[in-house]
Amino acid sequence: MRSHRIPVAAGRLTTLALAVVLTLAFATGWIAFELSGQSGRAVLLVHAAAGVAIVLLVPWKSLIARRGVRRQHTMLWASVALGIGVVISIVFGLLHSAGRPDVGYLTAMDFHVGAAICVTPFFIWHVVARPVRLRATDASRRSFLKGAAVLGASALGVAALPSANRAPTGSFASAYPVATQWMFDGVPELNAQSWALQVDGRRWTFDEVAAFDDRLTATLDCTGGWYTEQEWGGVRLSRLLESPAGRSSVNVRSATGYSRRFAIEDAGHMLLATRLAGGSLPAGNGFPARLVVPGQRGFAWVKWVVAIETDDAPWWWQPPFPLQ
User: Fold this and answer.
1) pLDDT tens digit string along 73-108?
2) Cα 195–chain centre separation
3) What is the spatial distance between Cα 190 and Cα 188, in angstroms, rounded to a whole number?
4) Domain boundaries defined on the chain
5) Which fold has domain 196-311?
6) In the predicted model, is pLDDT for residue 309 greater than 60?
7) Is residue 271 within 8 Å of residue 214, measured between CB atoms?
8) CA distances from 188 to 136, 261, 291 (A)
9) CATH for 8-167, among 3.40.50, 1.10.10, 1.20.950, 1.10.3470?
10) φ, ψ at 102 (rounded to 5°)
11) Torsions phi, psi of 41, nearest 5?
């Protein structure tokens, strides 16, 4: 029987290449979560190319993995968990690209990102426990040509992925779903009669807020992999702030405890919405009031708003992504 072996030098380079593209895929994935518009598209193309490169490197890596399995080292289970997690993330990433964003209650994007997060500790362990020690002979002409071939094939793979009906961030057009604010929060039970909005010490009732008729057409681009463009009705945030002079940011807080902070000068571009598409705002979509933030991803659009506060903290004084 013929034995399939991979040279030691090629094994080192394959492992290093996988480490690089996995790091690149993870970093660009999180950066793309934060960005929107054409800047998001540029980062997403790099992310997709890294994903294709991972797939292309799998056959070479499988030969290295067989050698590791035969050694039966004590942390074999961690390596297996890493491999399974990467496969799950790649498969659901491809499912999302193919236009199948929903998998039961969750979207394909949820599985794609969730698997990547779960394998991160295993990836860090693998890099630390099994460092790649390159040698001068590894920088050969053959290695360069192989690397160039992988890069070229990755670019062709990205070009072959379907892109119709997608936003620059890769999200698909969708009817407005009822979604959580960030991870697994539930819809709070709020009613218009008892709800009140606190704005720097002033209390607004629902009728007072709903009396405004500012309108804004904006696209909600969710990190779950979908987007929708709707007309929102409500009040510009700047009209609720009586004396923002000297303040640096505005913090918008939900009834669930969720909050996001924004630059005070952006208040005139944001809307506290009480209506959606000419009708009342559904409970699952933020009733009695939710924030509309054009140009930012869905996790910035705080739902079930109960408080708006201005202070001296800079807008970036918060985690880049919510922690709850």
Assistant:
1) 667 778 888 889 999 999 998 888 877 667 777 788
2) 31
3) 6
4) 8-167, 196-311
5) Sulfite Oxidase; Chain A, domain 2 (3.90.420)
6) yes
7) yes
8) 61, 21, 16
9) 1.20.950
10) -105, 130
11) -65, -45
